[in-house]
Amino acid sequence: MEQILNRPELQSAVAPFVIALLVYFGLRKISAQAWLWAVCAAFLVSVLLINGVTVTPLTGTRKIILLVLISFFAAALLPRLLPRVNLQRAVAAGAAVLALLWVFWAVLARMEAGAIALFLAGSIGLALWLLFLFDRLAHNEARLHAAGFSLLLGVGLAATAAASALLGQLALALSTASAGAFLGWVLFANKDDAEAAQPSITTLPYVLAPLLLGLAAVIFARLPWYALLALAAIPLAVSLLPLKSDSRFLSALLSSLPGLVIAIAVGFWVWQSGSSDSGY
CB-based burial of residue 42 (10 Å sphere; 0-12 exposed, 13-18 middle, 19+ buried)? Predict the structure, then answer.
């Protein structure tokens, strides 16, 4: 049994997908944010299988895990406390900046001033770009989830190809969990829930998780930084896709295609680039 539980396929694919689908099915009539709780629960189980219950020492990766889990709770609970959209956007942007500083402060402390400024400008710019694009997708759940799980898939494939199995596993677990909740939305959401726009801050996990895991792969696994630029185009590609279908299944399928193509292409390119482009 232990050998089965230790298999990466179970930890990062089967378990999160099935758990997210089941949790979404169970909560769909109870909570409007069922997909957030579903992905959070699935990711938590994956983390326990991958990392165990150990939280010390508080490494950069464990900080990312904690922040991603917190982002799900914030995204689910804060819309009631912060009804104004502009305030939600400000809180999401501030949270992203603080998360970047907390996770990578130890790395920044060893850099020269110019390198610190370059890293902060690039990472904060990437965060704001993703926040802006996902905020545009919040009104359409098919596009939102398609962009979210495709971006996480791309980060997972690229990180794995850049020789970071742990970061890759975490991103892939989030991607398959999101795919499970997405499938649950396609199969089980009633018409009103399917057409309801998501509050702006609910997109925070789809921004924070790929942002932190992607940057960690750049710094710790030597993923080429420009791979993140290509992956950051996923939500843009999804938002530009002309989509006029009354079928949830068809909307989900068509919305997913651009992101999947980019994610797989970037992952394959990083893998093909090999050790020289990855920094090893």
Answer: buried
